[in-house]
Amino acid sequence: MAIMTTTSPAAFLPVLEQIAEEISRTPGRGRPADYIPALAACDPRSFGMALAEPDGTVYGVGEWRQPFSAQSVTKVFTLALDLAREGDELWEHVGREPSGNPFNSLVQLEYENGIPRNPFINAGALVVTDRLQTRTGDAAGELLAFLRAESGNPGLDFDREVAASETAHGARNAALAHFMTSYGNIDNDVPVLLDQYFRQCSIAASCADLALASGFLARHGIRADGSRLLSRSQAKQVNAVMLTCGTYDAAGDFAYRVGLPGKSGVGGGIIAVVPGRCTLCVWSPGLDERGNSVAGVAALDRFTTLTGLSVF
Amino acid sequence: MAIMTTTSPAAFLPVLEQIAEEISRTPGRGRPADYIPALAACDPRSFGMALAEPDGTVYGVGEWRQPFSAQSVTKVFTLALDLAREGDELWEHVGREPSGNPFNSLVQLEYENGIPRNPFINAGALVVTDRLQTRTGDAAGELLAFLRAESGNPGLDFDREVAASETAHGARNAALAHFMTSYGNIDNDVPVLLDQYFRQCSIAASCADLALASGFLARHGIRADGSRLLSRSQAKQVNAVMLTCGTYDAAGDFAYRVGLPGKSGVGGGIIAVVPGRCTLCVWSPGLDERGNSVAGVAALDRFTTLTGLSVF
Amino acid sequence: MAIMTTTSPAAFLPVLEQIAEEISRTPGRGRPADYIPALAACDPRSFGMALAEPDGTVYGVGEWRQPFSAQSVTKVFTLALDLAREGDELWEHVGREPSGNPFNSLVQLEYENGIPRNPFINAGALVVTDRLQTRTGDAAGELLAFLRAESGNPGLDFDREVAASETAHGARNAALAHFMTSYGNIDNDVPVLLDQYFRQCSIAASCADLALASGFLARHGIRADGSRLLSRSQAKQVNAVMLTCGTYDAAGDFAYRVGLPGKSGVGGGIIAVVPGRCTLCVWSPGLDERGNSVAGVAALDRFTTLTGLSVF
Amino acid sequence: MAIMTTTSPAAFLPVLEQIAEEISRTPGRGRPADYIPALAACDPRSFGMALAEPDGTVYGVGEWRQPFSAQSVTKVFTLALDLAREGDELWEHVGREPSGNPFNSLVQLEYENGIPRNPFINAGALVVTDRLQTRTGDAAGELLAFLRAESGNPGLDFDREVAASETAHGARNAALAHFMTSYGNIDNDVPVLLDQYFRQCSIAASCADLALASGFLARHGIRADGSRLLSRSQAKQVNAVMLTCGTYDAAGDFAYRVGLPGKSGVGGGIIAVVPGRCTLCVWSPGLDERGNSVAGVAALDRFTTLTGLSVF
């Protein structure tokens, strides 16, 4: 197997095309999330994949320009936005260790006095959102502005129907927020925090949008406009947290199969980073039992196998 | 910061020398493990670090030729030896997800019906040893022969005093083994298994030995003599498991700070892999509260910072 | 030791006087609950004890007519009021097993899918209150009316300052309520439920009031006015739940030392039942580390020792 | 319903006969324990029940003279024998709180540093056996001698086949014993302890034997020969532990339904105590999902309903 070293424009397009062709012949796709109607209505056969070069070139296959519900994929960006403002103090309020338990678990939170294990489990993302909210007064607005700027897509927006559905089914997250409040680890009122949190989750974006928006992680912290969001060390750290904690209780399996920092969402999206080289976003709404896109993981697995671009 | 790209012989020696000098000026070193006398007697000021190039060149600083108790560092090699024989069937008996709990925890084992979370917690290493024992009749002997061959050091050996002490303090591991037996996940008699396991842990080896012995992980599965131990994919997988699970309950922190696949032991040793580039072994017996060498983690942190060789 | 068999009026008064005298000479009293100001302000030297005969005769020692915050002692009455209406269907929504964990634990709730272990842990009391609220539209009002009728004290009332303080410090209970909502085990809106719950806890009543109000448990289900609240079997069941679950994580210890069905509250009150014979209420605000009144448990321990009236 | 107050000889025989008749018409019986052949071979339709008066009169119905495997019922006697020698010091090594978890759970043991919650879960019984072994050199022999003396049955004995089967399937108990050894809470060598423990469990005794042997608990600590085994207070305490912890994870349910101190075994036996009045033993090998005899619990439930002899 040869490792690709070319960096000519759209160099990986044939690889993406081969992957799309292989995926199209694969029967099983898992099932879309069904806890809210908007997600349940997705066609599990949908598939899109985009790759963004560090210079902003983006290309893709399948439904790579189709917006979908970004959900937990947004947790990466919220983390980066808060880390950029707050720095290491954040880590006194949320850990960076894998959770070793399903993503909603309250158990570990109780044993560790209200400090979530990492920023990508729901409890941790609530803490990060809470802190960004305190610093900005509008965490969701900050996130939206960032995603629009990095993707160059001013039409990117919240999906109010999804946000409303999330709120209506948000008892578990409300429990987490109140629980951490009881430990003094949440500053804002719970209803305000949940509103910010669910609006973030509701953002609709395409593979192209999210691959571009992730670009700062391949560029060691530099935004699309050349300004610095994160220090080189911080960008490395976000990638590390993605690799060890980015795919719920399957982070080890994802590292083992794909070998790239990645973050999934229950909308079926996954972003992945090849540090220094490129970022990817793949979308297919059918999920496995651990909440990760079946075709999405398979596509990324094929990508690192075909290109040799695993970090390992 | 420049990223080093040279591959000339001993290219990293100045970096190692700088690290050793910095470490020598650092006061705190943690405390040696004290559960057995042989470990408790170690001087926490001891420090050695070795780097092995893929071609077998090895060099180092400090006490890099001083044998120490390899302890859990050996779990990587036992895993590789069993995986080479058994392939993916192994993963039906041990997981590859981070444990999210202290390394001796029985809790997760109970909730997951006797299947340990990964091969690097004690329960998982017992399973791997048990399976290698079933396939070879002498797991510890296989491991010793492999380490001697890869390091080119025929004097490398078990430390019988350490093995005897481990056995005398082995109640927790005996509990784990009996517990997994009750789930049908251990084949050999518990006393036989524990004898094999503790002999493995007792192996005394130097930084030079272990850096060389890890070389197959930088060479994508190829042994020192050019023969293949693991497939390219399997070597990638072992690195992935090291990154996500290699440093007890601090795997996320290690990935965040160091950004390399690594495996630590309570003897104070840590091995780390720069895939395709080199392997490292650092030793300093003072441990932090999670069981990892304080100076060892600091040295590897400095190494990736100075060279830019983090996988992220 | 003789077992008292007399039933003449005020037969136990000398026993109560002896206990009060002994308690007055005991130095250590524990510390009042300090999570809300109204409880923290209590004098740990306060002590009162009342005994009610089945015929409604009541007498006591110390501050036995001084109102205090009934807190979790009210859980017994809410349970009885709901059980009277709903019968065994209640037990599909709350268990009757000891919790084996501190009284606020979310862990067990998660492992048992939102069904609390028993009606006396906070989660279980929230479920009982929720169900009584659904059936009556005013759970707290029902409880207050019942306590006034049984105690013959029309001045018995909620303490609005305490209720407001509880609400302000109610994050943990809010978490529990939302969490059970996520399992479909709560019917009412969480803020409505919490308001009902905290008003119940806030009720101020004296030892005399609560000893009298517990009388139906000594009379096998018969209220003060001769009407039946619970069947004989249900009254027995409430006593059984009190004995096994009534004193947080110290139920075994309470059974072992006192040997009577009892229910404690963090206000320092404890009620106890001698089935067929009498009911007791003791109050002293200093708590042990498990949340039970130090002098209260000691007084009841002495009572069963002096009278031989333990159920064992 | 009238409460029986007569104490004439065999006064309860008609009640037992009615119960046996009712049980004989009940279809479901649960399933015998199947982890060892000797238990699995039992006929789930078997049923026997015996009642012993404090004066040593014993009578029964059904197969009340048929020996069966006493199993965990013996834990009561071992507890009493150790408590008689050691007194309260025992409670520094084993708790007296309900476990709130299945009877083999290691979780709680880990969180509580090797101190079992109570003497009737397996871990706790191992600790009690270990301590009796240290004090006598032959815990199982002491137990056997006691049971022979109290029952007046010199033929009562260990069942060597059962003990051997238990040992062969004893991995879980071996794990518990090694685990507690690691916390310093076991004094004897694990194989010696397990041999003592399994021999105790293997004792074959009839309902008549066990009802008589329990008599000291109805007689407030006095043995059949009039000598004192336990103080009045200690006898009360053993009854309290039986009520709160005697039927695995169903202690609350047992208290709720039966309302008597009781102790069950997986052989299908249950002993129960009416303090000051009588002791009962019922046997039927079919178990419910929590390990208690289905017909046994039903028979005791009927007994307290028909006689009003619940402690509540």
Automatic annotation (TrEMBL), chains A, B, C, D:
GO terms for biological process: glutamate biosynthetic process; L-glutamine catabolic process. Keywords: Acetylation, Hydrolase. Coiled coil: none annotated. It comes from the Bacteria. Pfam families: Glutaminase. It is an enzyme of class 3 (hydrolase). It catalyses: L-glutamine + H2O = L-glutamate + NH4(+). InterPro entries: Beta-lactam/transpept-like (IPR012338), Glutaminase (IPR015868). GO terms for molecular function: glutaminase activity. Its EC number is 3.5.1.2. Substrate binds at S72, N122, E166, N173, Y197, Y248, V266. HAMAP family: Glutaminase. Homotetramer. Belongs to the glutaminase family. This is Glutaminase. It comes from Streptomyces solincola.
